[in-house]
Amino acid sequence: MKFGQGQKVIITGASTGIGRAIAIELAKGGAQLGLIARREELLLELVNEIQTLGGKAFYRVADISERKETLIGISELVNCMGGIDILIANAGVGAPTTIQPFNVETQEKMIKVNLLGVIYCIEAILQTMLASEKGQIVAISSLAGFKGLPGESGYTASKAGLNTFMEGMRIQLRPKNIFVSTICPGFIKTPMTEVNDEKDMPWLMDAETAAKIIIKAIQRKTKVLRFPWQTSLLMRITGLLPDWLIERVMKKYNENPPMPKNAL
């Protein structure tokens, strides 16, 4: 039996990138899917594709940074599916942190989506999982959460916060038979990263390959997954480097930081 067969899985940020690729892969395995994203037309396209694969999917439109929208959308999906086995909190945004001007609103949005959005998602399903005494909560974070980087302060802070929040939840929910996994990928080819120069994204991976790696980690109930190993090692080394060297390496990036078109 393929992993996912008969399981009820909710995926946020499902319309593009990693979320979409995970949804397609799980649909092939026979999972029943609840999909959430902001753009209805893309969700409809995904639902149609899943149906052509013989899968079953429901969707709701919601902005994960809005607590009320998120709670309503996820609750409705849980009702449609008759429960939930796995939550994959995948929705995330990224944009540079600038200092002239100091783009506070952009950083607020990143923290709301990348950290608070995950908390809202967990709020929406936690009592259901506690009542059934089983479940799995998965958050898609980033290797960037392990080091504050110049020009990426807001993004790295949001992911660092997510990593520590999920760690605490993992330990707290352990005796409740609810498993918690934090997935920390490196550079993945998605609409969010397409504004970057590929030479600035070493070991860039396509979303489909990343999705297969993530699903294996979910199946194994991996606590924390960092991948690919090359980028993970690079981030560990970066953590040991002096500030002046990191500033020099990222100086060109910060002189003209690439701004995503629709991420925020």
Descriptive report:
- By secondary structure, the chain is of the alpha/beta class.
- It has a single domain (8-255), classed as 3-Layer(aba) Sandwich (Rossmann fold).
- The protein is 47% helix and 16% strand.
- It is built from nine helices and nine strands.
- The strands form two sheets. Strands 3-2-1-4-5-6-9 form a seven-stranded parallel beta sheet, with helices on both faces. A two-stranded parallel ribbon has the order 7-8.
- The longest helix is centred in the middle third of the chain and has 29 residues, at 104-132.
- The chain is globular, with a radius of gyration of 18 Å.
- The chain starts with 7 loop residues before the first strand and ends in a 9-residue tail after the last helix.
Compile the SSE list and pairings.
Elements: E1 8-12, H1 17-28, E2 32-37, H2 40-52, E3 56-61, H3 67-81, E4 86-89, H4 104-132, E5 135-140, H5 153-173, E6 178-185, E7 188-189, E8 205-206, H6 207-219, E9 224-227, H7 229-238, H8 243-249, H9 251-255
Parallel strand pairs: 1-2, 1-4, 2-3, 4-5, 5-6, 6-9, 7-8
Helix pairs in contact: 1-6, 3-4, 4-5
Radius of gyration: 18 Å
CATH architect. name: 3-Layer(aba) Sandwich
CATH topology: Rossmann fold
Give the name of the CATH superfamily.
Answer: NAD(P)-binding Rossmann-like Domain
